[in-house]
């Protein structure tokens, strides 16, 4: 009971941190430093200037000091209980523990399941502007072993000697900083992803799926940083599955978040963010880079796909790979923004058949569609808003509105595109409201049967107003902005949000 209560207390506190901006306050006066509040911190050693690090995140992993980085292994969650603190890892699932025979082991530490036992309790004492971190069970201080100054040096506990290697600067960290989506994913409750939960870093598909499964079991939000290449060989299955869960962010670290030959499937889930990932050449599982599937039960909604690079190959048969980003059934309230789609026969399908008549709501903005055959996007039923995208070298058709879909298409730049806006191969035609698009080097096919094309004059066939606020860039600026901002390692740039 005590353990369950503590777990609940920790996650309630993390949620409260998110509601107040996700940051613990730590102010230092001239003569005294306030004790820290609850929340995420980095611990910087006074003597070496290096950062406390727990990269392995295993129960028996050793603490070291390393050069400061973006690793989640350098973020520790402090949780105050009375006059003492728990020091939790970045996942808030393990507590820093002093071994019972620490004296014989020279104060080496370990991670343990949270118990709130005395061996997990720490007192934090002001040594302005630094702090001493004292084990309640041994009365020893957290220190860099033997006053080492180099990266990789062990961190342990030792009796107080008054040295700078036993002093730490605590730097509060924002929890999961993010900006907001624009469009349908922002409506209603919005899309926050893993905001308010712990942040973890993974390098393999097996680690990624393990973290997803653990968060699902706990019913807790999570942000997972991808710092490595996910492949079928280092994964447990033929796809990464986000299924029957909510409040997840999967975010690539710089340009190192790569999925090679394996994709992500989102099923019956909501409040999901997929960001800053390079996903391509997916020939396993569903063969989609990203697949989003509802079950017609209202559980798949509020999903944001942002600043990714998704690609296949035009050098293979058109069915060798499937789509780059597909949705089906009642997946809705989705925003697809700042992505780079390229080299694929089938870019983005929404509604898998002429009977998939769900009222989907999807926004596409500031995406780059390059060297594609078709489906940019193909949209059946529902409502779509497609604005400020750049299209280049589209060989078959770009936007295909089918089965009564209504699309607001505005401020897009089409260059060297065949059939920019059409209703092809549909039992019932779809519709479009065209506003301020730019067409250069365009060719149109002569429609046959029930097919329709928007050219050459670009006439609207419906009127559509979307139910949210947004800023429309002048079409003259769209090409330069999209080329500069779409794709990976650009999401944190203010001009690209």
From TrEMBL:
Q: Which residues form the Pectate lyase domain?
A: 213-420
Recorded hits in SMART domains, A to Z, give: Amb_all (SM00656)
GO-annotated molecular function = pectate lyase activity
Q: Where in the cell is it found?
A: Secreted
Q: Which Pfam families match?
A: Pectate_lyase_4 (PF00544), RicinB_lectin_2 (PF14200)
Enumerate the UniProt keywords alphabetically: Carbohydrate metabolism, Lyase, Polysaccharide degradation, Secreted
GO biological process terms, semicolon-separated:
polysaccharide catabolic process
The entry's cellular-component GO terms read:
extracellular region
Family (UniProt): Belongs to the polysaccharide lyase 1 family.
List the protein's name.
Answer: Pectate lyase
């Amino acid at each position: 009971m005590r353990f369950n209560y503590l777990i609940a207390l920790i996650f309630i506190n993390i949620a409260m941190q998110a509601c107040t901006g996700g940051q613990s306050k730590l102010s230092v006066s001239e003569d005294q430093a306030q004790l820290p509040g609850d929340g995420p911190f980095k611990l910087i050693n006074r003597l070496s200037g290096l950062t406390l690090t727990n990269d392995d995140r295993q129960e028996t992993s050793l603490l070291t000091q390393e050069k400061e980085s973006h690793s989640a292994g350098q973020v520790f969650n402090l949780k105050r209980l009375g006059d003492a603190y728990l020091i939790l890892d970045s996942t808030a699932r393990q507590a820093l523990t002093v071994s019972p025979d620490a004296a014989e082991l020279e104060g080496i530490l370990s991670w343990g399941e949270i118990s709130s036992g005395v061996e997990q309790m720490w007192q934090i004492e002001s040594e302005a502007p630094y702090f001493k971190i004292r084990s309640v069970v041994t009365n020893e201080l957290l220190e860099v072993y033997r006053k080492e100054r180099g990266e990789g040096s062990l961190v342990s506990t030792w009796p107080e000697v008054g040295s700078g290697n036993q002093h730490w600067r605590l730097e509060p960290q924002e929890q999961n900083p993010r900006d907001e989506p624009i469009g349908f994913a922002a409506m209603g409750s919005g899309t926050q992803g893993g905001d308010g939960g712990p942040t973890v870093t993974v390098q393999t598909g097996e680690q990624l799926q393990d973290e997803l499964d653990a968060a699902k079991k706990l019913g807790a939000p999570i942000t997972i940083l991808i710092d490595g290449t996910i492949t079928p060989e280092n994964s447990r299955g033929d796809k990464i599955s986000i299924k029957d869960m909510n409040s997840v962010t999967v975010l690539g670290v710089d340009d190192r978040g790569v999925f090679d030959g394996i994709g992500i499937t989102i099923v019956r889930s909501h409040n999901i963010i997929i960001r800053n990932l390079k996903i391509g050449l997916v020939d396993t599982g569903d063969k989609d880079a990203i697949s989003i599937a509802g079950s017609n039960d209202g559980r798949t909604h509020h999903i944001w796909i942002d600043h990714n690079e998704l690609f296949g190959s035009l050098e293979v048969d058109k069915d060798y790979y499937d789509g780059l980003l597909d949705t089906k059934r009642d997946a809705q309230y989705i925003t697809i923004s700042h992505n780079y789609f390229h080299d694929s026969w089938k870019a983005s399908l929404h509604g898998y058949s002429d009977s998939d008549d769900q009222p989907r709501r999807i926004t596409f903005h500031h995406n780059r569609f390059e060297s594609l055959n078709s489906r940019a996007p193909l949209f059946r039923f529902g409502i779509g808003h497609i604005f400020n995208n750049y299209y280049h070298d589209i060989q078959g058709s770009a936007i295909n509105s089918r089965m009564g879909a209504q699309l607001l298409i505005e401020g897009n730049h089409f260059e060297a595109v065949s059939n920019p806006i059409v209703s092809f191969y549909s039992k019932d035609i779809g519709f479009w409201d065209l506003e301020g698009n730019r067409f250069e080097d365009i060719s149109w096919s002569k429609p046959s049967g029930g097919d329709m094309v928007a050219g050459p004059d670009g006439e609207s066939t419906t009127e559509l107003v979307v139910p949210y606020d947004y800023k429309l860039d002048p079409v003259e600026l769209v090409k330069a902005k999209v080329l500069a901002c779409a794709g990976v390692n650009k999401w944190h740039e203010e001009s690209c949000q």
